[in-house]
Design brief:
This protein binds to 23S rRNA in the presence of protein L20. This protein has 106 residues and is mostly beta strands. Helices cover 4% and strands 62% of the residues.
Length: 106
Amino acid sequence: MSSNVVHAIVKAGGRQEKVSVGDVVIVDKLVAEVGDTVDFQPLMLIDGDKVTTGAEELEKVKVTAEVLAPAKGPKISIVKYKNKTGYRKRMGHRQKLTKVKITSIA
């Protein structure tokens, strides 16, 4: 069962993502405008039955993506409370993210 789809494991921010051409992935915030192209560092390349993990071969591989839009993560509520002192504090946080579309793996 081999397929002709090329997959790559790329390092995007603090995480690793499995991507192929045409995938839309949400990664940590990138310093890029909408429509810009960005390159990701591949950690592994899967081409059918062939798996490439060597650093020398991966230096030749380039994973290119186009920035689609900025995004925000889910709302996280932070509540601090101390008993018997009247101390209550509420905060919220939404992580800034970027939506990218993988255009080529070459």
